[in-house]
Please model this.
Amino acid sequence: MKKKRSLNKLLNPGLLKKKNGFPYHYIYVKENPLSFVTESYEKLLVNLSYVNVDQSYKVIQMTSTIAEEGKTTFVSNFSYLLSKKDYKVIVVDLDLRKPKIHRVVHKPNEHGLTDYLSGKITLDKAINTSKELGCDYILAGEKTSAVTHVLESKKLKDLINELKTRYDYIILDSPPVIAVSDAMYVSKLADGILFLVGQKNDAKKSLVKEAIETLRKNKTPIIGLAMIQVDLKSGAYGYGYSYGYGYTDEQTD
Model:
């Protein structure tokens, strides 16, 4: 068995939530371009370029084991820097039960995905550009009780295929794997998955392994693993990441 490769570490000092000192629309890497945080994200993007040398992964799903693991924080910083690499990027909020991208772009959650799929608005109306993200986005839109039907709909699949013709990367902010099945349906739309694990959260190793095995049932490759909310040696609790690309079976042992 190959040894697990050492992972780079990244510290983001604070959650992107008002109660923790940062509003959702505060993009750390944007405001601190010369920081260690930004440099570490840059290394992450270099790793992505090697994994995606054949441009096989245009649609990337971001998910985690359970809620409150910092997924939207990761999506916002990741997408911002990705767009600065001259890639055409769009973020799609597919966390239809607890959407948060509208908080990042500082807009009401309206004229979004569900509104487009129900025929209330055109696609051009659903797609907007954000100064905060530095790229385009589609909000979740009007709340619906038929989440599964929306995620399984042919019109959503057609939408993703249309976005592939317009963008280099489509970033899907999706729900966590455990508790609801939504992430499984989203994975069917993705080319690859970036899986997030909160070190300081309540997800035990066995639960993380269960989430990963659940995702594998749809055979969408997990192209990256990011450990977030890392407690550094200094003793100061921050909002950190360690990450690696080229996910293998050995990494769950």
Notes: The longest strand covers residues 192-198. The CA atoms of residues 114 and 132 lie 23 Å apart.
